[in-house]
Amino acid sequence: MPRCDIGEESDFFTMFIDRFYFRREAEDPAKAWAFDTPTIPSKARLNVLFGSGNGHSNVQDMAVFQTEAYELVEDELITGGDFRDFVCDSAIRFWGQVNPTLFEETRVADTARDVLYKIVNTPSSVG
């Protein structure tokens, strides 16, 4: 038996695509490729984490980064659902899968519960 239990191509995607996350800056248009499933092998959808310069000392307002990130929706390169996944759901999946109680008693507790529930009750993102 193979060490990684990879017996066919779809096993590779299940083991790696669903578990890897890629941090992208708000203004980086390349993040749209993660949601462009027809161009990705097996029509997989990549996990993209919202990144910004918010921690930099010269950044006064995080809303600037949200506006830049949303430009991909306005330019019709990603959907509103893709945007939500980029700035919210992806981070919930990333952190919540290793600590399902992390978001309890926070403002996003209900949203996090819904996002994490979908992981448990949805097959792999591989098409």
What keyword list fits this structure?
two-stranded parallel sheet, 5 helices, 127 residues, mainly alpha, 2 strands
Number of domains: 1
The largest β sheet comes out as: 2 strands, parallel
Quote the distance from N terminus to C terminus: 25 Å
**Percentage beta strand:** 5-15%
Number of DSSP helical runs: 5
Low-confidence stretches: none
Record the strand order, biggest sheet: 1-2
Mean pLDDT: 81
Spatial extent as radius of gyration: 16 Å
The coarse silhouette is globular
Helix content: 40-55%
SSE ordering: HEHEHHH
Strand runs, count = 2
What structural class do you assign from the helix and strand content?
A: mainly alpha
Lay out the secondary structure.
Layout: H1 9-16, E1 21-25, H2 32-35, E2 47-51, H3 63-74, H4 80-96, H5 109-120
Parallel strand pairs: 1-2
Brief summary of the model shown:
This protein is mostly helical and 127 residues long. It has five helices and two strands. Strand 1, helix 2 (32-35) and strand 2 form a beta-alpha-beta unit.
